[in-house]
Amino acid sequence: MEKRYTSYPDKIRVQFFRYPPLERSLQYGSSYVDHGAEITELKERIAELKEHIKRIEEELEKKPYPIVIHCLNSDRLELEMPLIVTIEATDQGSFVIWSEDLNTWGEGKSEDEAKENFFKNVEELYFDLKDNKDKLGPAMEKIWNFFQKIINEIQDTNLDGDQQ
Fold first, then answer.
1. Nearest CA among 37, 38, 16, 35 for reference residue 27
2. What is the pTM of this model?
3. Comparison of pLDDT for 141 and 27, the residue scoring more
4. Which of 6, 108, 142, 151 has the fewest CB atoms within 10 Å, counting from its CB?
């Protein structure tokens, strides 16, 4: 038995042939099956699923996520160990980055701008705490102790190797 498929837009025509073809066609005939409504329904469902996936991806972009900072891009400070911070896109299209350990943050129009602002704020906080370390309350003392574990000050040296 041989099957022959001939497709038409949104229709499939199936004919069964047997030699002699006349006997088979008279016995079983030929049939047309219209799948247009089913195909249209599937296309609509695929479009709905694509839109749903797009909404999920947009929501995931808005959720805060952790990143690891290895360098503060500072001439005065360097990290001894990585610092884990959280970054989040705001509804206004900007970014906020913060560290719960240091209780400080930065913001910017891009991730890079937010990081640079964060690095500047960390550097300012470090030197403010250093200058006032004898007057710190318990919360700021905890942050200062954390700084002592993760940050080294970079010593300026001149060409002779003397510290300035």
1. 16
2. 0.61
3. 141
4. 6
